[in-house]
Amino acid sequence: MLGICRGRRKFLAASLTVLFVPAITWIYLFAGSFEDGKPVSLSPLESQAHSPRYTASSQRERESLEVRMREVEEENRVLRKQLSLAQSRSPSHHPGNHSKTYSMEEGTGDSESLRAGIVAGNSSECGQQPAVEKCETIHVAIVCAGYNASRDVVTLVKSVLFHRRNPLHFHLIADAIAKQILATLFQTWMVPAVRIDFYDADELKSEVSWIPNKHYSGIYGLMKLVLTKTLPSSLERVIVLDTDITFATDIAELWAVFHKFKGQQVLGLVENQSDWYLGNLWKNHRPWPALGRGYNTGVILLLLDKLRKMKWEQMWRLTAERELMSMLSTSLADQDIFNAVIKQNPFLVYQLPCFWNVQLSDHTRSEQCYRDVSDLKVIHWNSPKKLRVKNKHVEFFRNLYLTFLEYDGNLLRRELFGCPSETDVNSENLQKQLSELDEDDLCYEFRRERFTVHRTHLYFLHYEYEPASDNTDVTLVAQLSMDRLQMLEAICKHWEGPISLALYLSDAEAQQFLRYAQGSEVLMSRHNVGYHIVYKEGQFYPVNLLRNVAMKHISTPYMFLSDIDFLPMYGLYEYLRKSVIQLDLANTKKALIVPAFETLRYRLSFPKSKAELLSMLDMGTLFTFRYHVWTKGHAPTNFAKWRTATTPYRVEWEADFEPYVVVRKDCPEYDRRFVGFGWNKVAHIMELDAQEYEFTVLPNAYMIHMPHAPSFDITKFRSNKQYRICLKTLKEEFQQDMSRHYGFAALKYLTAENNS
């Protein structure tokens, strides 16, 4: 009985508070809302007054009134929530009508339910539990096709990962290109509590190819229409995002909005912020039908289970067929069809607050969606101009975007504490391998680098090449870092065939490279160069990992294993294709040697023939490669014989031999234990010899090394005694591994090393 009385007293107190506080607040605000007999606006989105009577003092008063108004409104919301809960528990409670408040700030759903339970200091049992559980998985769907869109997805994902506190499951509807790029990227990124599933976009083309579309996104811009059919039937809800989205908040806040959907609301959308659907942009402008300004589909909340029950597929198809009879084609891809459906069925849509999709195309009302940085949730670069769009605050938005563009993705590999991650076999194997290393070993850092997983973005730029049909095609393979970028144009001028390059860059350097490449007529005119970014991590230059990445992603039957600071002779590409046939490389284990020379001059008149090269060699303008510092590396090529040779000739392997060779694409990879400077090529040539490759020198081929500043790794090798000791240790271990793997035949490598 005592408990019931206390409950009634609490109920009475809450009721009186709800009745009196608004009345007192209204009187207070009414009295304070007049200045010299004139009302003062309290609109949170209104600009500053321009009247001559306007003063700094009145501005401060207005701001204080606004703050007080928001505080009182917040208190009222909490009290109303407590009252409703008390009524539901009271035996005398009778159901009644409840009014809803609709506003641009809160959307067209229940504006109180989310905020009421998270007011600071509210420990009452009446407080609402968080709308998103701590370890609840958030599902995100993205349609992605091609090389450029794959780059955009990475920036979007970075912005989501930066703010997130929940496990994420990305559903990527991707073409073959995007799948190859993004599958490798996420596999090597190894972000905890992130799952990726791919769905073949090419298989979905038949579902939407019957719809004529003028939008620059092409057929892929229509695929969001078929997500109910594409995504797993067990998936009940999903956030759908365009690739040109940047998040400025935790995506869980957007996921929580699903709890505000009422009745038959199944689509969460932000109103379109341009005048497109009003039909007044130009004379005879005739957009698709839409409700008012229409809705933008860059950010969509989909209740998939309800959409399926409503027969969404049939609904949008019938609408599209009907409208296409008069409209002939879509202008804004899926957005036109979504809006036409909503026009006929307005009850389907829950209008999201506009800060969930601040649309930065020209001439939009996006500036009305925010007053401060803290108001921003999602930025949408939905103009073909992208970062060059016109907006009063575009510099701020651009800098925010560039922050994520250049942000070190390795820093996003953080665990979600308290949320168990799914078992990752690759991650477990990596941890096991690392745990077996002795951290007290003076060469620990060298050994650890062998197991480091470097985030890799394949085909960073557009790539388009079909190998020659005669099966003689050769790809030039090389690796580089930022300090060798200037060599790219020269190599492209010397080698017209396909090229596969692995670039070791930071996220910021990758963007510098992108700008450099896009500003180069030479590089932009070449679509047969594959640029593969391997992101920096650790203190060593992973030279052999880079070579392996470049080797793995060639589409030709043969490859020329070169280095970035060498220029091949003019016409070498065609010469090698002829040599491949002449020496029957397809059916024999041969490594064709391209003799290497060097110049100490930064400006060189490149020899156009062997005769001209020999003349420069005699004059001292050119030298055999490393003649002054490392003769053993190329001595077995037998340059004296090469001077007069007119046919290919065979040479034998010798200790420390490291020529540049043309081999089949199925040749062994480089050994990853060798990083930085020293023995990285020597070990590879030794393994080719162990596998009984025949070394054949080409009589009319040559390449020339161009001078450059010493690399950081060669400087460490020369100055650091421990570096040299560890390299010697790794060499010995490699030779022992060779003996175990290849048996008695590999003993000659130990003997040769001891005699050298």
Descriptive report:
The strands form five sheets. Strands 13-16-15-14-17-23-19-24-22 form a nine-stranded mixed β-sheet. It has a seven-stranded mixed β-sheet with strand order 5-4-3-6-9-8-10. A four-stranded mixed β-sheet has the order 18-25-20-21. It has 25 helices and 25 strands. Helix 4 packs parallel to helix 5. It folds into two domains: 138-412, Spore Coat Polysaccharide Biosynthesis Protein SpsA, Chain A (Alpha-Beta Complex); 456-749, Spore Coat Polysaccharide Biosynthesis Protein SpsA, Chain A, CATH 3.90.550.10. The chain has 756 residues and is α/β, with parallel strands linked by helices. The radius of gyration is 34 Å and the shape is elongated.
Structure, briefly:
The chain has 756 residues and is an alpha/beta fold.
CATH topology annotation of the largest domain = Spore Coat Polysaccharide Biosynthesis Protein SpsA, Chain A
Regions with little confidence, pLDDT below 50 for 5+ residues: 1-6, 8-14, 16-57, 86-106, 109-129
| CATH superfamily grouping of the largest domain | Spore Coat Polysaccharide Biosynthesis Protein SpsA, Chain A
Q: Could you give the order of strands across the largest sheet?
A: 13-16-15-14-17-23-19-24-22
Find the structural class using helix and strand composition: alpha/beta
Helix content: 25-40%
**CATH architecture type of the largest domain:** Alpha-Beta Complex
For the largest beta-sheet, the strand count, sense and barrel status come to: 9 strands, mixed
Shape: elongated
Overall mean pLDDT: 82
Distance between the termini: 100 Å
Q: What is the tally of beta strands? A: 25
CATH class of the largest domain: Alpha Beta
Total tally of structural domains: 2
How much of the sequence is in beta strands? Answer: 5-15%
Distinct helical segment count: 25
Compute the gyration radius: what is it?
A: 34 Å
Biased composition (Polar residues): 44-58
Pfam families: Glyco_transf_49 (PF13896), Glyco_transf_8 (PF01501)
GO molecular function: glucuronosyltransferase activity; xylosyltransferase activity
InterPro entries: Glyco_trans_8 (IPR002495), Nucleotide-diphossugar_trans (IPR029044), Xyl/GlcA_transferase (IPR051292)
